[in-house]
Amino acid sequence: MCPRNSPGRTYRRREEPLRLASHIDEESGQAYTPRMDHEILPEIRSRRSRRTYLPEPIPEAAVERILDAGCSAPSGANQQPWHMIVVDAPETKRDIRVACERADVTFHENAPAEVRRWMTEHSITTDKPFLTDAPVLIAVFYDPKAPYALHSVWIAVGFMLLQATREGLGSLPYTPSGASVKALLDVPDRLQLAAILPIGFSRDTTRQSRKPPPETQSWNRYGVSHKPVTL
Q: Does pTM top 0.85 for this prediction?
């Protein structure tokens, strides 16, 4: 949780490093002290959604780390309601693309006029070449009966996107518009698809703008832009 200002309170810059309690790594059992360098992770700053990919294979170990990152996410009541399926078979990726594009055609045809206009302005079409161009897809499913399942699975997706960025790979949280892909992957009926993440080295290096803080952040009351005072 970020600190908040209240009347009469200021936050002073420390003159010595903040001492943090050691944590225990669950796998190694070794204690470690988290970094405190007053910067957010560079992967958070640099991550962007990528839709074009190079036809280069990616290391299997990198994919495994991305999966591990997702499975390390917090979840409601620690139910970990997700199941990720890695797809690298070209014929399966092709079938997934066909199913998603077919569903997107229906979605575009039935979308409200303002939504169709927005998609046109942003060059969003029913063509999804990234589903076959990316060397790997990760289909992320979840159990909707688990507590806070949808919230939990999207935290896991966020962790996976950040780890992909750390691996030097591009990705995209693609949400098919009602595409039927469960049968293609032998997924049980009880699970629902949250997103498909294409993973690969990206052709796209463009940067996207972010909204300024006053449009997305407030302190204590909506619309109140106020930062902590640093002395």
A: no
